[in-house]
Specification:
- About 25% of the residues lie in helices and about 30% in strands.
- The protein is α/β, with parallel strands linked by helices.
- Helix 1 crosses helix 6 and helix 3 runs antiparallel to helix 4 (about 85-105).
Length: about 350
């Protein structure tokens, strides 16, 4: 079976290729030329050489700019906080790369994501499950995958703990074995969001007012694209207690701030939904919901609405629910589906979890 492995130069994707070759597959390494620095491209090429597999560099820069970078900037200009890794997975790794793999005569693509794919014999659906190493689980980023994409995807490292992956890499003599995992967005140099947005946003940065929730002006912001819900640092206002961004109003070009307690909410509405373990949500369900990658799952009621939307009500208040981010639903270790957070109920919650 021929498999194209997306190789970034990191330890996970390199070991994914090694595991598939060891299993007897015809493995081809493919590095997407989008924004990877030259040293990462070289790491991927060297890893493919050590594994004795062919290696291709595939230029996907144009589609990456159109489907990832442009929406990323536009979302910030609208006062939202996007997750570009999710869009990259949807349109690039499991979209454009899958198309390229088919052109190479491959049956599957594979990545180094810490997640697993299983088939449910009863429903016949492909299921997306958490990786064995819960600390490294990346199923949150993959909730947009369709049944067709899952049918042509392999995730070999998802069944291993990260320390075992590093040990395998060391045994293979891969230089990535001891390298730290990247924590930055690949196309943001030095993780400097403001500088990137200044250089790439289509609209001019426009300062505006920082308000409290009663409309009083407390200061001036540098541009709404530089702020996100829950942000405390960098507001530049003097107050008797710490102030946090509690909402962003692009129509008024205003940032609204409040206390930490006012960053909490029980409810959200999400759209652009994708379901994995079910074909569609026909009625209310109770599941665990996760509003950010580094966030604890919380029990919630999920209610379908018209227009491919859901209303989500949490069992306990959540801090800094952020429009533009993803909310992903789980049943145990299985991803039910997810969507993009659109609206938050701003009925403020006090420190006791009571409405004000």
């Amino acid at each position: 079976m021929k498999v194209v492995v997306a190789m970034s130069g990191g330890v996970d994707s390199s070991v994914a290729a090694a595991l598939l070759k060891e299993a007897g597959h015809d493995v081809i390494g493919a590095t997407m030329q989008i924004t990877l620095p030259p040293d990462k491209l070289e790491d991927a090429r060297i890893a493919a050489g050590k594994l004795d597999i062919p290696h291709h560099i595939i230029n996907l820069g144009d589609i990456f700019a159109r489907e990832v970078i442009a929406p990323f900037c536009q979302e910030y200009l609208q006062g939202r906080t996007p997750n570009p890794c999710i869009r990259c997975n949807r349109y690039i790794k499991f979209g454009a790369l899958l198309d390229k793999a088919e052109q190479l005569g491959a049956d599957f693509i594979a990545t180094g994501h810490h997640a697993r794919i299983e088939r449910d014999n009863i429903s016949g659906r492909h299921l997306l499950k958490k990786g064995v190493d819960r600390r490294k689980d990346q199923s949150y980023f993959l909730y947009t995958l369709t049944q067709e994409q899952l049918n042509h995807t392999l995730l070999p490292v998802g069944s291993f703990k990260k320390d075992r992956i590093r040990k395998i890499a060391g045994e293979l003599g891969l230089s990535s074995a001891a390298k730290a995992d990247s924590q930055e967005i690949c196309f943001i140099p030095n993780d400097d969001y403001p500088e990137f947005l200044k250089n790439h946003a289509s609209q001019t940065v426009v300062p505006g007012p920082i308000l409290d929730k009663d409309g009083n002006v407390l200061g001036e912001h540098e541009g709404i694209q530089f702020y996100t819900i829950g942000q405390r640092k960098g507001l530049g206002i003097a107050a008797g207690e710490p102030r946090y961004v509690i909402s962003i109003n692009p129509e008024q070009n205003a940032i609204v701030v409040g206390s930490k307690a006012e960053t909490f909410s029980l409810e959200l509405t999400a759209s652009v939904l994708n379901w994995i373990s079910i074909a569609n949500l026909e009625g209310p369900i109770t599941a665990k919901a996760k509003i950010r990658y580094q966030h604890r799952e919380t029990e919630a009621e999920i209610i379908p609405l018209t227009g491919n939307e859901v209303y989500v009500k949490f069992a306990e208040p959540q801090m800094a629910i952020t429009p533009g981010q993803a909310v992903v639903f789980y049943h145990g270790d299985t991803v039910i589906g997810g969507g993009t957070i659109d609206r938050i109920n701003y009925n403020w919650i006090n420190n006791n979890g009571e409405r004000r």
